[in-house]
Amino acid sequence: MHPGIIFFLVILGSVLFHIFTPWYWTDIASNWGGMDDTITLTFWVGGGVFVAVCLFMTYCVFKFSYKENRKAEYKPEDKKLEKILTWATTLGVIALLAPGLIIWNQYVTVPKNALEVDVMAWQWGWQYRLPGKDGKLGTTQVININDENPFGINLDDPYGKDDVMIQSDAINLENNRPVKILLRSVDVLHNWYVPQFRAKMDAVPGVVTFYWFEPNKTGEYEVLCAEYCGVGHYAMRGSVLVQNEQDYATWLGEQETFSDLIAKQQDLVIGDTKLAQK
Amino acid sequence: MSDEYDNNKTYQAQSSETMGGSAPASPDMDYVRPAEIPDQELYHGHSFITKWVFCQDAKVIGVQYFLTAVFTGVVGLILSWLMRLQLGFPGAAGFMTAEHYYQFVTMHGMIMVVYFLTALFLGGFGNYLIPLMVGARDMVFPYVNMISFWMFFIAVAVLMASFFVPGGPTGAGWTLYPPQTILPGTPGAGMGILLMLVSLSLFVIGFTMGGLNYLITILQARTRGMTLMRMPLTVWGIFTATVLAMLAFPALLVSAIMMTLDKILGTSFFMPTIIQAGEVLDYGGGSPILFQHLFWFFGHPEVYIVALPAFGIVSDLISVHSRKNIFGYRMMVWAIVGIGALSFFVWAHHMYVSGMNPWFGFFFATTTLIIAVPTAMKVYNWILTLWRGNIRLNTVMLWCLGFIVTFVNGGITGIFLGNVSVDVPLSDTYFVIAHFHMVMGIAPLMVIMGAVYHWFPLVSGKFLDEKLGKWHFWFTFLGAYSIYFPMHYLGFIGVPRRYFEMYDSPYMTSAVGMNEFISMAAFIVGAAQFILIYNIIKTLKVGKKAGHNPWKANSLEWLTSTVPPEHGNFGERLPVVHRWPYDFSVPGAKEDYITQTTPPSEVVHTEVEKT
Amino acid sequence: MSDPKIEGLQLKPGFRGMADDTGSDQTMFKGVHWGKAMMWIFLLSDTFVFSCFLISYMKGRGSTLVDWPYPSEVFALHVGGVSVPLLLIAIMTFVLITSSGTMALAVKYGYEKNRKMCGWLVLATALGGLTFVGMQAFEWSKLIEEGVRPWENPFGAAQFGSFFFMITGFHGTHVSIGVIFLFIYAYKVFAGHYENGGKRGWFTTMKGDYVEIEILGLYWHFVDLVWVFIFAFFYLW
């Protein structure tokens, strides 16, 4: 068989695979549809270039395969053609870059009304903290973390006392409300990633990183760790439940705050001393 | 006017003036500048040891580098089999724990990128081809060159030793990101990582010795008439890649030193305050992201250290086997140099979601996509070289065509990942794995294979078997393509990379079948590589004699005094170069090639045509 | 091979001429010895090593949570009961810069084939380097006595000790290697390896030539130049 035929089939196969693939992105559940659109655009432009270049190559293979008595053309360069190709490529690249940068600008500009969520990661698990009635998260330090203070909140920070603590890998979010994810890690790199939300960012020990999104579809989603963090990396999962406003408010009301926790522990300590006194 | 083409007036008009370099215009067409450098005296080995072991001949050193690199490559291949076994058929290998899996991932990555591809292209092809192609007797510092190989050899030995130390090799991922790398919870966080860092440092030191040789040989030891713009693109590619390596490896060396100190002395360069398993560690105040910057300042140029020699070699192979000059030679040279220069300004595109200052994203996305332009120009020029050529569809050419398909595919997915916001959903998924394997794994591998089939007749004097070669090609090309093309779609689904086991998520279960398919393809592709080994052994025994310049190429490596070339390469007198290496199918000339050493007055013409 | 004397070589004038010469056959840098070109490229690579160290230092110093120690206090020397800031380091720097001067003179006398003067000056350079390393050892032991360690220090951020020992240590290694080579080359000069066409070197077919002194000089000046930066970054910032 002529090799050109196989190359042609490879290109054809690639295109058909793309059209009929049962594997494609999961349904989006956040505001980052723009990312999907840019990917689609890049697919059209890039895929077009791929097909064009490879078909041209295949055509050459058919048309110009070796013949004893033929002589190849002698043409060291063609400045005009090279110039046209350079500019066409440049324009194509600009057309792809521009939407990418616009969306990145949105990605790094967090809306003012976004709900801040402190996501704390460790080997290998997640826990979450939401601001209390004052709407502000208390400041934290890794060194403060212990059994009584699982998030390492600075005890002298008044904003910290009413923070809602969710000591579980599952969290609920309110539908159609922007969320600013503040990522912290106490040991190594992690990454809080929900494929349906498209967005991700590494959690880096020593600093707080962030990203934002707006869930726009109720339902439960799985959280994956997307930055290698040791042997338990693949098992470091969590979940997000996106709810409507009412359900969310109910759920939020049931959660424990930091002062609740302190009070409970004091009760325990008092209970312990009473027991000891008896 | 240049003396590039022969003195037939019909096409002197279309030749561009700088193609011929700067040989002064002279009434004598064959004029070449007088020699500037005295002939190099060589140390000829006498015993087996000085001839084949501690040898100072760049060609032998090249083969030593090649074989050592291939050995590491086979180790890397076996590791990839084990990984695919786990991913396609979880639990099929009983001994496979998550620790082992991550160790294999790490070692596979590091071996393939540094010890296989870099050493093979620069140490292997660089050593063998540079002196031959620029018309030198040997590298300028043969002794240092020999040390360079043995440093590499020790580096490989140290790396392999890490398989046998307590705790095994490091399993931190080939990027070795701290704080992960040196903390418990990572396999091999004791001896494994130390051996890895020591091995990398040795590699850098050894490479620096070799790299100085390549650069000075190319810059200061070319033969008479070999101007910069008459060098084969192979030399340009290796030259630029070596410059990149000389400037990029320092960052790796520095980060390796700092990490070693963090590990042994307990400094905190990269280590912030950490609580692990409820205990506060003795670290604090360091920056993990600093390491990532240092690593990728090395790591991105490293991609081009592998890619640029591949670009250069494939240009030469395509030109020779389509009997046509490479289209747009000057554009090709400037593209190589431009890509090399730009590669130092794009490193943080590996770090869009690393938590660095998000505003860097704008800068690095722009620089990254700028690189697409010279790269695309190279692709256009390759296919335009095929246009109206006289293409020999032999094994070498098949590998080149395979390279074009895989490289264009991988290059275009690179535009996805370089374009900062598109990278956000795709980074750390299988899309990335598919992309970089296609563009810097399979594509350069295609070139390596093409180069092996192309230059084997020079190295051994015998042709590799064409039929076996074609089987080897189709298995490898179709197999590798069917591994990595579907893998992109796993990334779209959202499957993260570096997952030991992944089938319990609802949207991932759909990928089970694909994973099995990919694994099967991987086993076949790996096994197909043994066709080449069989082919080489068979050829060495009963192969067809190749003789002088069997491909009818123009460049100097085919014009040696003997085949295979002896120590000193060119016999009594060094060749004198009169033209670029791409004078194929020159109108008016009788043969379809004119070697670089043919002076204009000696070109054999056809009968004068009446036009 | 010494810098080859090229018959009738004339570099072409102007930018165009320079481009022509650069792109011409045989050599890019006309008349430059292979070893010299190699040393320049090696030093370029080494510049990147030190740049990476110093940039990491800047980043580390910028991002640490604890205050950085005051260099004028840490590096002060007590002379007769008075604390003189940066005294030792001033002397060290002076010695090292002076040794650069003697090195330059050695190169000059080497090319003039003045064997004696060249040899003595190389030896003087070596002794200057040795003094520098000695004083650095003194400074290290003083800091260690005061409790500064790579992983901690009593004056502030632990990274101060880490970066100081690592970078001065790396530079000190460069100086020490230079000193060893200076001694070897001083011997070679005195022994006349560069006279009468030169003696064959070790493991090479190349004949010795005074250009080797210049190559060694390039390395030595580089080490001095790097010191100026380290001095500025650690002691003056």
Please describe what this structure looks like.
The complex is a heterotrimer of chains A (278), B (611) and C (237). Chain A is of the alpha+beta class. Chain A folds into 2 domains: 3-64 and 76-108; 115-271, Immunoglobulin-like, CATH 2.60.40. Chain A contains 5 helices and 11 strands, in the order αααββββββββββαβα. In chain A, the strands form 2 sheets. Chain A has a 6-stranded mixed β-sheet with strand order 8-5-1-2-3-11. In chain A, strands 4-10-9-6-7 form a 5-stranded mixed β-sheet. In chain A, strand 6 (190-193) and strand 7 form a beta hairpin. In chain A, helix 1 (3-20) runs antiparallel to helix 2 (33-63) and helix 2 (33-63) packs antiparallel against helix 3. The radius of gyration of chain A is 28 Å and the shape is elongated. Chain A starts with a helix and ends with a helix. The mean pLDDT of chain A is 91. By secondary structure, chain B is mainly alpha-helical. Chain B folds into 4 domains: 54-231, Cytochrome C Oxidase, Chain A; 291-391; 393-546, no CATH class; 554-611, no CATH class. Chain B has helices at 9-12, 48-53, 58-88, 98-134, 142-161, 191-220, 233-264, 288-321, 329-342, 360-386, 395-418, 420-426, 430-460, 466-493, 512-542; strands at 275-276, 279-280, 462-463, 544-545. In chain B, the strands form 2 sheets. A two-stranded antiparallel sheet of chain B has the order 1-2. In chain B, strands 3-4 form a two-stranded antiparallel sheet. In chain B, a hairpin with a 2-residue loop joins strand 1 and strand 2 (279-280). In chain B, helix 3 (58-88) packs parallel to helix 5. The radius of gyration of chain B is 25 Å and the shape is globular. Chain C is mainly α. Chain C folds into 2 domains: 1-32, no CATH class; 33-236, Four Helix Bundle (Hemerythrin (Met), subunit A) (Up-down Bundle). A two-stranded antiparallel ribbon of chain C has the order 1-2. In chain C, helix 4 (87-111) packs antiparallel against helix 5 (115-145) and helix 6 (158-190) runs antiparallel to helix 7 (211-236). The longest helix of chain C is centred in the C-terminal third of the chain and has 33 residues, at 158-190. In chain C, 35% of the residues are buried. Chains in contact: A-B, B-C. Chains A and B meet through helix 1, helix 2, helix 3, strand 7 and strand 9 of A and helix 4, strand 1, helix 9, helix 10 and helix 11 of B.
